[in-house]
Amino acid sequence: MNGLFQYVILVIKGKGKFGYLSGVISTSPMDTTDYQTYQTWEAENSIVMSWLINSMEPKIGQTYLFYKIAKEVCKIVQEIYFDLENIAKYFEIWSTFRTT
């Protein structure tokens, strides 16, 4: 696994939100009768998505604005940029990852 990717994972883990990327936290508890559970999931998923998208160049980040789940954004970015031919672009996207 790429060192830069590992750094991004550490930041997200440090914020306690890695489950939204790994799938440990349900992709969407929309079927729950507990409205508060859904509201919490939606808010935290949105936070993780905003960290991911804001860490990208605006032109690239706009592509991911219409995804609903942070895990999808992470998966697609990995598929597109996580190979040796595109490692420079991948680094460019993730190098500005914000820790806020």
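The record above closes out task 2.4. Task 2.5 opens with a second protein, given below.
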Amino acid sequence: MILCIDTGNTNIKCGVFNDAGAIIKTWRLATDKAATADQYGLLFNQLLAQSNIKKQDITGAIVASVVPALNNTIQQTLTQILNFTPLFLGPGIKTGLSLRYDDPRQLGADRIASAVAAYNMHGGPVITADFGTATTFGAVNLRGEFLGGCICPGLALAAEALSDRTACLPSVVFDAPACVIAKNTVAGLQSGLVYGYIGQVEYLVARMRAELSAPECPVVATGGMARLIADRSQAITHVDPELTLKGLAFLYEKNRG
């Protein structure tokens, strides 16, 4: 079995894949930069035990991280509980994609993993959209070249900024009112946040498809807000909550030698 870990700014997503490449268990932990390797080790041991997964059955591990401050902690944690050093997605890793990015070292590991998964499952051209703390889009062309993409504030981050930086606007539950023209402040915030975000997504996807010369290419969404947007937008063609983890599993197999 292979353990795949996606360390994000808000959550750490974990997935265990069996020898056939199928995901058999996932967990989501809160990202805590202050936590020690011992604390994370205790948590991982508990999760494995509760899932009836034996540590000795895990023969490999790979990590994508956008939180450099946690890299050493995660590495120490996995080394302690699994007795081997995990593979980190970074320079020198074979991806199967050509990274047409000005400086590939600045490209988020999660974006690479998602692009690898989308291209392996859907071919190219393909667009990825990851609705996390930040919303990131990526584009892979027909030749398997990652061309880049764009980065926007995440939906939750935008809502938090509105609440924190204004005196009278409250925090709201994400929902889509029946009408865009809202008749109260809460519905107005929900309308502006959700429908405004959908408009942003549809515009960006349309521009990316035009630049790819692929008006019908698939758009694969992942992340915590993916379903909220996809259910209300025709721009998203697939939702895959485990897209990044699947990309890590592909990458591990490609680099395991």
